[in-house]
Amino acid sequence: MDSKAAPRVEMLFFPFVGGGHQIPMIDTARLFATHGAKSTIIATPTNALQFQNSILRDQQCGHLISIHALRLPDGAVSPDTDMSATPSTDTSVLQEPLRLFLLENRPDCIVVDGFHRWAADLIDELQIRRIVFTGNGCFSRCVTQNIRQYMPHEKVASDYEPFVVPGLPDRIELTRSQLPPFARQKSGLPDKISKSEEKSAGTLINSFHELEPAYVEYFRNELGKKAWVVGPVSLCNRNVADKAERGKRASIDEQTCLRWLDGKESDSVVYISFGSLARFAPQQLLEIAHGLEASNHPFIWVVGTIFSKSEGGREEEEGNWLPCGFEERLKESNKGLIIRGWAPQLLILEHASVGGFMTHCGWNSTLEGVSSGVPMITWPVSAEQFYNEKLITDVLEIGVRVGSVEWMSFNVEKKALVGMEKVEVAVKRLMGGGDEAMEMRRRARELAEKAKRAVEEGGSSYNDADALIEELKLNPVEEGKL
Ligand code: UDP
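That is the input. Now the predicted structure with uridine-5'-diphosphate docked in place:
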């Protein structure tokens, strides 16, 4: 996608301050710059450091993109927390700096993450056209909406009795144990977010039409949402440097990682990652380690820094949670690579040796798995990940479930462990070369091709991005709404 000639529309992007929300919004800003918009990313000074190199590279390619670092009030604590911000992280310290910036700068629109809960009121008050970004795909948005509307989970007798989500294009079964607490009981937060979405000019969705056509239509026509579906936005990362540094600098040198993968056969390696937030307890990691070893398939396993409670109740880094002799055996057999910290996920997933992705079904990871043509082992933990699991396994049929049954907040130790046998069975089922797995791989590859076509000139996502730019050009800023 090359830059286009003027006139340019001016788009501001105000990402949330961490991982799974920040990363795709930066990519989205970069994507719109390749469509000829003038993109400005509003960030805290420390957050800006995490993606400034990729923006610099885009500028060198001639794209009109820049970062505006908000000046925090003296003594204020910046809300960004090294990719570990959670939905409840309070960012309101950014309110006044943003207001001052917007008083001086009137863009054609501002794309804002719904987790900045205070921002909609401010932006609407200043009469700037506001576009919402929630980080989710259409399928999970439709499931969320219909559960809220019909409350089917109230009609079952136990947390583990399945219910069907009414009204959807497919028969989607869930259990109450898989729902986030705010979906089980009425809570004010989703209401506030959805009301502010209703008043917005529309929603930007990181997905592509061909992935979930029935749900894109349902979202637009049945739920009545104005949506531009412009992804997968991760595909704007086209060179090794962008992929290696995405999110933050990887904890492993990318060449070491790629050399290790080069030494493996095609489609032989399972990549295991649970996103930017999920941290398992040492007992769960032990089960994973045993299961992987028993499966006897090569793997790359990303574990964050593991903490456990010390006697005094303090969180302490836990060093010694692997089974006895595990790492020595791995070194000898060269069967596995453990990454402690941040992995260059896009580079790994796109490598020809990677044939399976054990994932927590975060939406970005799901899309990245799809875009790389890699079938998945689904291990949802929190947020809307159980809904994404249904899309992967039941609708798209490109994944097998490990058997995670209970929603838990990402930072609370799981009550129900997934045992080593389940890990072993799931890995063998996906990586063992059986007909079922080969069929999943074929379907995953087909979707990857469709994903690439969607973002190329003339593709569905490309056209949606252009359509938004055209609407921005046609409608004067003063109207406030499209
Ligand atoms: N990610 C990464 N390296 C890691 C962990 C995560 O690059 O070690 C990226 C991943 O590629 C994805 C994002 O972080 O783009 C995680 O988003 P997702 O929606 O999958 O999960 P979340 O972190 O929001 O739970």
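The chain has two domains: 10-139+177-234+454-474, 248-450.
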